[in-house]
Amino acid sequence: MSLKEHLIELRNRLFIALGALLLATVGGFFLYNPVMEILTQPLLDAGGQANFASAVSPLDLMIKVSVFLGLLISSPVWLYELWAFIVPGLHKKEKWTAVGFIGTAVPLFLGGVVLGFWALPFALLFFIGLTPGNAVNLITMPEYLDFVLRLLLAFGIAFILPVLVVGLNMIGILPGRTILKNWRITVFLICLVAAMAAPGGDALTMFVLAGPLLLLFAAATGFCLYNDKRRARRAAALAEEYERSARQASELPE
């Protein structure tokens, strides 16, 4: 495909993803009240108090939370569009494999969000625990929700990165040996992301959160190595078939 055709494809896939997000956001408005109760409960349990700084803050938060819910609900659509754009031109059999990976990416993304919500109370207890004893921690809801939604999205996106790594391998950009060769850097970055995205009171929390990411990247690396070997065998078989055909053609009488 030419650059213009790639840009047209990107535009079309963005329109589909944004359309699905818009419809899912409308559905998110109906879930706003129960979801807000769930999101604010860890703050109350940690001893904090949620406050609205202005009269329009509730509306702003309703829109923000609804868009976040829209991202969760429409994740099968935009994840598929992302995969289809990164891994184009697959054979029919490989397209079914891509569908399988999308079926894996969606639970991973939602599982990352759930794991981020599990880590939320630990982070709140740590930060609110730093408040002096003679002071009250009055947190505005916009600041609190920004913190919560960034945390949840960070974990959700981190959990689908192994799927994107596999996609880059399938189009030949990222060989499995390259991933394996740089495993030390990968482990360091995963631990760093876990420490920054889910700060807690002790190192155990960071390692518990980094553990699933390390396992996912290990599985992705194993698949990439297997895919490289399969691709090499296929190329060798095609080369052998080509040589045999050329040899037979040269033996034909003129």
Strands of the widest sheet, in order across it, are 1-2
Radius of gyration: 24 Å
Question: How many DSSP H or I helices?
Answer: 9
Task: Give the amount of beta strand, in percent.
Answer: under 5%
- How would a crystallographer describe the biggest sheet? 2 strands, parallel
Which quaternary structure do these chains form?
single chain
Structural class, from secondary structure content? mainly alpha
Average of pLDDT: 79
Shape: elongated
Low-confidence runs (pLDDT<50, min 5 residues)?
Answer: none
Order of helices and strands: HHEHHHEHHHH
Domain count: the total is 1
- Number of separate strands: 2
The first-to-last residue Cα distance is: 40 Å
Percent range for helical residues? over 70%
In short:
With 254 residues, the chain is an all-alpha fold. The chain is built from 9 helices and 2 strands; from the N terminus they run ααβαααβαααα.
Detailed description of the structure:
By secondary structure, this protein is mostly helical. The chain has one domain (3-246). Helix content is 81%, strand content 2%. The protein has nine helices and two strands; from the N terminus they run ααβαααβαααα. The protein has a two-stranded parallel sheet. α1 packs antiparallel against α4 and α4 packs across α5. The longest helix is centred in the C-terminal third of the chain and has 49 residues, at 203-251.
